[in-house]
Amino acid sequence: MLGARVYARPWRWLTACAPVLVVFTLWDYLAVRRGHWSYDPRHLSGVRLLGVLPLEELLFFLVVPTCAILTYEAVGRVLGRRRSHR
Fold it and tell me: What's the CA gap between 80 and 17, in Å, rounded?
């Protein structure tokens, strides 16, 4: 459709998402371990990674950057097409 091709370049996707995943996973892990915040188990699957972080939190750190990259690439393609048609 828009031809963003984000999924066609998995290495670029990984290099963009890996820093977010690492930094925010560490941040959340430390915050939960120190008691700064917690997660309501009623709203979680029950799967925890590193004994502390819910699976949903780690997926969030992958989904949000992926959506941002997809949006950025799609908007760039649309605006690029418009510029080339003038």
Answer: 24
Residue 61: count of CB within 10 angstroms of its CB = 19
User: Is a pLDDT exceeding 80 seen at residue 4?
Assistant: no
Name beta bridge partners: 54: 48
Count of other CB atoms within 10 angstroms of residue 53: 19
| Domain with 24 in it | 13-37+47-84
Domain assignment present for residue 24? The answer is: yes
pTM for the structure as a whole: 0.76
Q: What is the DSSP string of 57-73?
A: HHHHHHHHHHHHHHHHH
